[in-house]
Amino acid sequence: MQVHYKTFGCKANQYDTARIRQELEARGADTVGTAAAAHLVVVNTCTVTNQADADARRFIRRVCRERPDARVVAVGCSVALREDEYLGMPGVAATWAGHDPVGVAQAVRRARPTLVQLQARTSLDRVDQEPVGADILLRREGSTRGWLKIQDGCDRKCSFCATRLARGSSRSRSPDQVVREARQLSSFHPELVLTGIHIGHYGRDLDPSTTLSRLVSRLLEAVPNVRLRLGSIEATEVDDLLLGLMEESGGRLAPHFHMPLQSGSDPVLRRMRRWHTREMYRSRALEIADRMTVLGLGADIITGYPGETDEDHRSTVALVEELPFTYLHVFPFSPRDGTEAANANARCPVPQRVSGERSRELREIALAKGITHRRSRSGDRATVVIEGDGGAALTGDYLRINTEIAESGARAGSHAEASNESGRSGLREGTLTWRGEDLTIDLTGSAGFN
C-alpha cells in the first residue's frame, strides 16, 4: 500500500509524522512523495491558528477531489479538538485524535484493512499496544537535520492557546531514551534539534525529577559528533547552567534561542495569562546577549490580542527595537474555540485591519534587524550544516546562507555526505562574506568541529 504524508505545524508535529511513517513502514506500507501516487494519505493537522485548521481541511478536500479513490486518515491536534468535523468530511476514512503512531496505525488499518502487518521478531509483537517500528525515531528521512522530541504537552494555561488542549499535560521522555534516540539519529543527522511543546518543563514530571539543562549536559557528553540546537524555550526557563553550556560548548550547542514573547505590554501579558512581565523578559534577553559572542535570537509575537491598545502596541514596538532580535514570527490574533481569549475577543475585538497593520510594522522592524545582524557577521568564521542538495547552509545562530565551493572540492550539499556514519561531514566550517545583498560562506576544503 502506497502512503503519502502531509504535515502542518511545528517541529513536534514533523517529528510525530516521522514516527507515524516509521510505524506504518514497519507494518508493510510504502511511502510515496505525492498524494497523486498514494492509496492513502495521512494528514497530520495543526490547530495553532484558524488558518492552520483551514489549511488542513483545504488540503483534504483537494486530495479527495483530485484523487477520489484514495482514502484520507486525519490525525493530530486539530483532529483532537474537532474529530467529528473531520469524520464528516467526504473522503476521510478514519481519524486519530492525537499523534500516537500505534494509534494512527490502528486508524489506518480501519481505513485500509489490506495494510500488510509484518511478523514481529521481538517482544514488540502486540501490534495493537506496542510499536512494531521501534519506540525511538531511527531517522528523519530526507532531511539533513534531525528532530529529537524530548517531551509533549504543556502545563501552562495561556489564554490564547489551543495546543495545550489538544496535547494534554506535560510528559517527559526518560533521559536514557532521549540519549538512545540521539545516538541513533546522530548516525544520519549532523544537527539535532531538541523539540517538544514546552521543553523548558522537561523532567519536572519524572522520578527522580531532572531539568532541560541537565539533559543537554548529558547529550553533549554522550553524543559528541553532532551540533545540538534548542527548540522554542521561555526566557524565564533559560537557567545559568544551560547558558553556561552554550557559552562553553564551542558551538556544539548552537548559540540560538527562540524565546516566545507574545507581547511587550504588561496589561496584555496579564490578560494572556503569561507568567513573565515585560521587564523579566527584557532583562533576561539582555543578559543572554551580553554573555554570548554570537547569538541568534527569535521570538513569537501576537498582535491584536483582545483589548490591545495603541499604547500596548507601542510598548511592544519599543521592546522589539531595544532587544537584539535577529528574526521574529509575528501573527495577528486568531481566536481558538474553547480558550479564554475567544470569549474575550467577543467582548473587545481588535479590528483585523489594525491587527494586520501592527503585524506588518513589527515584521519590517524584524527584517531590518535581521539584515543588520547578517551584515555584522561578515568576516567571521562559522560552522554550518548543509541542508539538502541546493547549496544552502544553516549557521549556529540560525542564519540560512548560500555556500561557495571550489570546483575541485566535494559538493557539500550532497545528502550522502551529510549522512555518513559519524555525521561529522555534514558540519563544515568557513568564512562568512557579505556579497551583494546577502551572506555567503566559502566551504572549500573546510571541516566541522574538531
SSE topology sketch:
Blueprint: E1 2-7, H1 11-26, E2 30-31, E3 40-45, H2 50-66, E4 71-76, H3 77-87, E5 92-96, H4 101-111, E6 145-149, E7 151-152, H5 163-167, E8 171-172, H6 175-185, E9 191-195, H7 212-222, E10 227-230, H8 240-248, E11 256-258, H9 266-271, H10 278-291, E12 296-303, H11 310-322, E13 327-332, H12 340-347, H13 352-376, E14 381-387, E15 392-395, E16 400-404, E17 427-435, E18 438-442
Helix pairs in contact: 1-4, 6-7, 11-13
Main sheet: strand order: 2-1-3-4-5
CATH fold description of the domain at 143-254: Transcription Regulator spoIIAA
**DSSP strand count:** 18
Q: What is the 3D shape?
A: globular
What's the CATH class label of the domain at 143-254?
Alpha Beta
Profile the largest sheet. 5 strands, parallel
Proportion of helical residues: 25-40%
- Give the end-to-end Cα distance, rounded to a whole number of Å: 45 Å
Q: From the coordinates shown, what is the CATH architecture of the domain at 143-254?
A: 2-Layer Sandwich
> Would you tell me the overall average pLDDT?
90
Portion of residues in beta strands equals 15-25%
Determine the structural class based on helices, strands and strand pairing.
alpha/beta
Kindly provide the radius of gyration, computed on alpha-carbon positions and rounded to a whole number of angstroms: 22 Å
